[in-house]
Amino acid sequence: xxxxxEHASELPDLTPPWLSSRLREWITVPGHKGHAYLVMSEDAxxxxxxxxxxxxxxxCHDIQDGMACEHCQSCKAFLQGTHGDLLSLQAHEGxxxxxxxxxxxxxxxxxxTALYGSAKVLLVRDADQMTLAAANSLLKILEEPPGNxxxxxxxxxxxxxxxTVRSRCQLLRLPRVDKAVALDWLASQVxxxxxxxxxxxxxxxxxxxSARLMADADSLAAQESLVASFPLLSHQPSGPPASWxxxxxxxxxxxxxVWIESQVRGVGGDRFRDHSQSWLLLHRCVAELFSRVKQxxxxxKEIVIAELFRLCRSRxxxxxxxIARRFLTSLGRDGVAG
Length: 338
Known about the structure:
51% of the residues lie in helices and 7% in strands. The two termini are 36 Å apart. By secondary structure, it is of the alpha/beta class. It has helices at residues 11-14, 17-28, 44-59, 73-79, 100-111, 132-143, 163-167, 179-190, 194-203, 208-214, 217-229, 249-265, 272-275, 277-294, 301-313, 320-330; strands at residues 36-40, 86-89, 120-124, 149-155, 170-173. The chain is globular. It has two domains: 3-173, 3-Layer(aba) Sandwich (Rossmann fold); 234-330, no CATH class. Helix 8 (179-190) packs across helix 9, helix 8 (179-190) packs parallel to helix 10 and helix 12 packs antiparallel against helix 14 (277-294).
């Protein structure tokens, strides 16, 4: 996870105005607030940021103009990342899934007496990364919330969550912001020219908060090197590009899928039948692997990279269908015709 969202102290500087407006709407709406919310956005970083905003609003002791004051004892503890009534749950470093033991610990946390007031808040970042067992364990909290607790889930792929979990949360959908507004905010945040901001937004596929976090020179350079490697795969002399090892496996798989989709879109109508099939089969292989990783599979990164490289390099080969069939079979899926 980008460091910018690891520490709540960086929340105010990162929150774009359209999210601040929605936070004000949430806090000022009269009536009883629910005990569980699922924040959904195409941008996982935006969803997580908004969920943190909801958390600080809930914990603040002196709401001012519909926003957390940032000065009370509770806000200061939140911004310093030391609030005793807030627990953030996400996949551990190097892991791709949130396990049941983490949810059980969260249950114990919510059952404890609040230290700063009457509320306890649980944040579950990328909730779609919960294993089925973890999601079922969380379901018990959602059905019988302990005390005055608030559970905030965030996700860019909420459809991966069990329907039982989704149905017990109030849904907060964050629509994609207008591109011009996103570019203005992004340019002001990272102090770049308009064309550079647009390039950054394109690299993040329109996800503006993710683009803001990518503005770190090292992160941006790594992703640019990764994307630049795909068109050159057929000329790669031996072994995968070095850039593939420099990013997280989930990013590598995601970017390969985007690249394949762009290749399929580029196939003309008169050539589609003959030239798109291998791309679609490659997409199926990568998408299936990506799905397994999202569900908690932890394959060896270097082994996966080697297999991905072999798949991509062999797409034009006469034996590609058989190679793809064996790949899918190794994932427990039927072959090409399955």
